[in-house]
Amino acid sequence: MSLREIRENQQIVRRMKEAARTQVVSHAYILEGDGSVDKRCLALEFVKAVLCGNRQSDGSSCDCCISCQRIDHGNHEDVFFVSAEKNSIKDEAIEEVQRRLANRPNQGNRNVVIVERADTMTVRAQNRLLKTLEEPAPGTMILLLSENAEHLLPTVRSRCVLYRLYSHGAEIAENVSLAAAQTGEHWLNREPFYRLVKSAEAALSDRGTALEFLDALELWLRDCLISLYDRGGELSSNRWPQTAPQLKSIAGRCGKAEICKAVDAVEETRQDIQHNINTAYALKGMFLR
Predict the structure, then answer these.
(1) pLDDT tens, 261-279?
(2) Cα–Cα dist 30/259, whole Å
(3) Domain 3-164: what homologous superfamily?
(4) Which of 8, 53, 150, 203 has the greatest CB tally within 10 Å of its CB?
């Protein structure tokens, strides 16, 4: 298997392939998703692509070189796993991680650590890991697999690239993006509350869909903001039902300050949902801010 065969979370898979292709790889990632998402599989395919000795043109692994085979068989010398012991990852496990990362890689130019159930790390273990995140050794690549990244210290989260994963299919993701674009337009146009709630109905079903909706809504707001400064027509809005000129018109009517205020509201709502506030209540409250 390789990244090119993964059909879920295509936007994140594309980012992973691009990182592997260009070798512009962050020292730390958080892969967040509920228990139905195979985070370990995606993490391993990402690592395979980064370490592959015969990488494909799209950035995915060849899936057959020595490095890929060793990762598949679980015996790659430069890939180290950390798992919870008695329901938590303790300081001693992270101390071993630091010892591993202090050594030079055996095969290539990267040392990789995959921490499963990273949100079970004790505070002491997280603070120890923080030292590594702040001053990583060259070639360090750490992947934290988590069901809820909010259980990680803010200082840890801030030093990682966060990839939020979903088990939903492409059709659901497309519907959520459409709902986000329609809702965003109603919101910035200050249309009635009932219309906002109706356009956001697709996001009210469960926590995962709501978080995906908020990601899409924030991306839509970002594109609106960019459109205000897009003088050369470089902004492509092919992901949205609105054209680039329409986004610019919407943004121009409400202004930069209003868009930034909406982005802040989205961020606050995401935190509310991650802190287990009722999804429908949190989203409806967002529109009233």
Answers:
(1) 999 999 999 888 888 888 8
(2) 28
(3) P-loop containing nucleotide triphosphate hydrolases (3.40.50.300)
(4) 203
